[in-house]
Amino acid sequence: DQQVKQNSPSLSVQEGRISILNCDYTNSMFDYFLWYKKYPAEGPTFLISISSIKDKNEDGRFTVFLNKSAKHLSLHIVPSQPGDSAVYFCAASVAGGFKTIFGAGTRLFVKA
Amino acid sequence: NAGVTQTPKFRVLKTGQSMTLLCAQDMNHEYMYWYRQDPGMGLRLIHYSVGEGTTAKGEVPDGYNVSRLKKQNFLLGLESAAPSQTSVYFCASTQGNTEAFFGQGTRLTVV
Predict the structure, then answer these.
(1) How crowded is the C-beta side of A53, counted as CA atoms within 13 Å?
(2) Which of A34, A42, A101 sits opposite B99 (nearest CB)?
């Protein structure tokens, strides 16, 4: 039973355009959400997070949107750059908890 | 500033062999985790620790054991390796319910 789902295994975007990566979750107890970026042969690195008390968090070219009623979050990258090509993992956790549940990941290709 | 270091980076085991993966962090984090990454499955939590001397089971703990004798180290053991344990293993540490810092991974092949 996947509690965090990333239904798009891959996404291809032209350089300079917007990349939108989607994530759905089933556990209504989740209240903290994170996005990680992973390059080949490296460990994941933290990108951006959002608490359930917010519906948007922005950091430079990266914005995460949270729709609690739909149990859906998305990561927007504007403008997309070739260096953004990586696997992006959505993750969720419960405040005060110790487990973070990850989605299967979406591989983003940004074409020059 | 090393962050999280995993040893070894690569290993090939024969079925039935045992091995220990070592994770070390220099950030004084309380919480440490072991994940495995398989194609199409994302990162699945094997075991975790909320402090020195404590461990707990994650989503996929069978076939693995862990120990946290020192705050900075978290060991993952495979007593009798099976082909199903072929995977990439990641260690991570956090301080509270915040972003995790990951090691570079250990690619394990069981033949």
Answers:
(1) 1
(2) A34
- Closest chain B residue to the Cα of A7, Cα to Cα: B40
- Judged by CB atoms closer than 8 Å, whether chains meet at A105 and B42 is answered as yes
| Residue B18 parent element (H or E) | none
Q: Which residues contact A92 (CB under 8 A, 6 or more apart)?
A: A3, A4, A25, A27, A30, A32, A33, A34, A100, A101
pLDDT digits (tens, 9 = 90+) for B84-94: 999 999 999 99
**Which residues of A fall below an 8 Å CB-CB distance to B?**
4, 6, 9, 32, 34, 36, 41-46, 49, 89, 91, 93, 95-105
- Give Cβ neighbours of residue A36 (< 8 Å, ≥ 6 apart): A44, A45, A46, A47, A88, A89, A91, A102, B100, B102
A105 to chain B: nearest residue by CA? B42
Q: From first to last of the 112 residues of chain A, give the pLDDT tens digit.
A: 678 999 999 999 999 999 999 999 999 999 999 999 999 989 999 999 999 999 999 999 999 999 999 999 999 999 999 999 999 999 999 877 778 889 999 999 999 9
B58 touches chain A (CB under 8 A): yes
Helix (H), strand (E) at residue B48: strand B42-51
